[in-house]
Amino acid sequence: MTLFILCFVLFLVGLYGVLTRKNIIKIFIGLSFMEFSTFLFLVLIGYIEGGIAPIISKNITNPVYVDPLPQAMVLTAIVIALAANSMLLAIAIKIYKKYGTFDIRKISNLKG
Amino acid sequence: MEIILSIVLIFMIIGALFALHARDLLSALISCGIVGYGLVICFLLLKAPDLAIVQIVVETITLIIMIAVVLDSTRHELKKTAIERKWKSLINSKALVNVLITVIIGIVLLYSFRLAITHLNPFGEHTLRMSEAYLYGGADKTGSANLVTGILFDFRGYDTFGEATILFTAAIGVLTVLRIKGRK
């Protein structure tokens, strides 16, 4: 329970960063915090006390494995997050080249 | 286990708060690295070695790209405008409204989070439902000793195929965005 709430606090910190910071890089950092907390939450759900990593070994008798399904899903999610983050950074580079600043208040050419 | 994980998580939260308030963008990125590598430690403690490896690689790549972006720029945190400085000095009715909205949103989020985790098992007492088939037949069916790779590339191969498509699309998108010349 404590761990779930701490995970949620990390998510809230990321949300706070996205909502209040004016720098594009800081917004990006806040977004990545939200991603991290979600990954951690999903892996926390699949953990079994006293379990071992889900790698089959003949030497261990009566093994208890942790749930491999959330781990596989989170592995996919991490790679997709990398793709989304690199896209965001490319746009940040373009914005800096065009406006000379990371300040979202100065980027006023976006109309409509 | 729970205590060690809590300590690492609190450390990560402190790093995250520092990253959002750092004056220099470079130190903000280094603090972002604290959170990412803390996540690696959490994954290792939670018995997920594959995730830890992937996270280390992804975090390092992201950190290098971000430092390359930031080193080209002015690096300093943006200065506050005159209006914002005035807001800080005197508490007017607008600030009160903002704080009220924040508190209401926080309460709503916390309530929905509590609602969401009431039906979850407590930490460490997970019951296997659908993974049971993967755990007790997966090694024979896929021939892979590592069950995570077995699930990723065999049972859920289409999922991984979609992931590869997304990666490819993102690579094309980055190339396109960086190559075009914007209208002046």
Report the radius of gyration of chain B as a whole number of Å: 23 Å
Low-pLDDT stretches of chain B are none
Which class best fits the helix and strand makeup of chain B? mainly alpha
Query: Span between N and C termini of chain B?
Result: 57 Å
Q: What is the C-level CATH assignment of chain A?
A: Mainly Alpha
Helices and strands of chain A: which structural class? Answer: mainly alpha
What is the arithmetic mean of pLDDT of chain B? 84
Assembly classification: heterodimer
Classify the beta-strand content of chain B into a percent band. under 5%
Net shape of chain A:
elongated
Helix content of chain A: 55-70%
Distance between the termini of chain A: 45 Å
Number of strands of chain A: 0
The largest β sheet of chain A comes out as: none
**N-to-C series of helices and strands of chain B:** HHHHHHHH
The tally of domains of chain B stands at 3
Biggest β-sheet of chain B: count, sense, barrel?
none
H and E string of chain A: HHH
Structure description:
The complex is a heterodimer of chains A (112) and B (184). Chain A is an all-alpha fold and 112 residues long. Helix content of chain A is 65%, strand content 0%. Chain A has one domain (2-99): Helix Hairpins (Orthogonal Bundle), CATH 1.10.287.3510. Chain A has helices spanning 2-20, 24-45, 68-99. Chain B is mainly alpha-helical and 184 residues long. Chain B has three domains: 1-78, no CATH class; 81-127; 129-184, no CATH class. Chain B is built from eight helices and no strands. The longest helix of chain B is centred in the middle third of the chain and has 25 residues, at 93-117. Chains A and B meet through helix 1, helix 2 and helix 3 of A and helix 1, helix 2, helix 3, helix 5 and helix 6 of B.
